[in-house]
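Work Package 4 report. The design task specified in the project plan requires that, given a folded chain encoded as structure tokens, an amino acid be chosen for each position. We show below one input record used in the internal validation round.
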């Protein structure tokens, strides 16, 4: 696995306050990495170090194998940073805003003109080419800022709370844009409090609290590690109590209980199975139910979500 971001015992102090406590972070190339944590957890501090805006107190950070301490100029050429709060030079027109940053990145004419058209098309702002930035909605300004981070074609995008303050439609549009950037091969590191949206687009997550990285890795792996036992939900049309008793005899089942109240043994109902076996053994449970004459109209593993994982590993304490 080739890494684009790697940190070794990254530590940051502000006076007596420990903002980052020996953080060891690994982000593979091509990942969409969701960086999760409460306010004051250390997300923005980590991002500012990776983008060379802040020198760490101790430890080291690398982008594409290049040290952010020793060669910050080379690192800046490979990253596009979109902070939570950013200036947009509201007296400029949209094309002027992008032209200004493209010029700073050293892009010559006539390439800048064609690049601006490509970026506006990418973020769906082509019709706003001549509009003043001050007249754009919050969501449009976010997309314009994202277009600006793409002007020099960076391999890594670092986005700090990009959905902050957006309405539901703008959030959906931003999410689809990030998916498109991922399909283009960009690695994306994104922090957010909107955990349900991160779950839909992230391949990897990191959970940080009080400057300490609590968990990091592929989403599926973290969910599996935090809940080694699976919860299978079963709905039978009748005879739920006999089904319950039969399931209790199976050695692969750790526990089974009714998920709703029953009036009598003939009533149907929901069963919740705590299970730690293989997929084949899970299939065998369903086969057993059917072979014993139970009519099953629902049999599925309940999936964990990011909010559940986040609540499981954090304590809700702000540094």
């Amino acid at each position: 696995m080739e890494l684009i971001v790697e940190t070794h015992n990254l530590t940051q102090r502000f006076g007596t306050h420990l903002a980052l406590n020996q953080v060891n972070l690994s982000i593979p190339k091509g990942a969409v990495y969701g960086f999760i944590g409460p306010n004051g957890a250390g997300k923005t501090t980590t991002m500012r170090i990776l983008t060379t805006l802040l020198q760490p107190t101790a430890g080291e950070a690398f982008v594409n194998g290049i040290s952010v301490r020793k060669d910050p100029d080379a690192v800046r050429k490979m990253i596009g940073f979109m902070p939570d709060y950013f200036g947009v030079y509201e007296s400029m027109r949209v094309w002027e805003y992008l032209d200004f940053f493209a010029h700073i990145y050293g892009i010559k004419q006539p390439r800048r003109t064609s690049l601006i058209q490509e970026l506006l098309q990418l973020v769906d702002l082509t019709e706003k080419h001549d509009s003043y930035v001050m007249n754009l909605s919050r969501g449009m300004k976010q997309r314009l800022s994202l277009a600006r981070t793409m002007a020099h074609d960076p391999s890594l995008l670092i986005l700090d709370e990009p959905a902050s303050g957006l309405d539901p439609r703008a959030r959906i549009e931003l999410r689809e844009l990030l998916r498109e950037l991922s399909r283009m091969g960009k690695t994306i590191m994104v922090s957010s409090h909107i955990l349900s949206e991160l779950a839909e687009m992230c391949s990897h997550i990191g959970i940080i609290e009080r400057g300490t990285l609590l968990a990091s890795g592929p989403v599926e792996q973290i969910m599996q590690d935090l809940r080694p036992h699976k919860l299978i939900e079963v709905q039978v049309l009748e005879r739920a109590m006999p089904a319950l008793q039969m399931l209790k005899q199976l050695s692969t089942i750790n526990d089974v209980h009714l998920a709703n109240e029953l009036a009598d043994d003939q009533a149907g109902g929901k069963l919740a199975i705590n299970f730690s076996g293989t997929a084949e053994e899970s299939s065998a449970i369903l086969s057993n139910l059917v072979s014993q004459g139970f009519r099953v109209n629902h049999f599925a593993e309940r999936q964990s979500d990011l909010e559940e994982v986040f609540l499981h590993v954090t304590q809700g304490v702000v540094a």
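The chain has two domains: 3-225, 228-303. Validation will be extended to a larger panel in the next phase.
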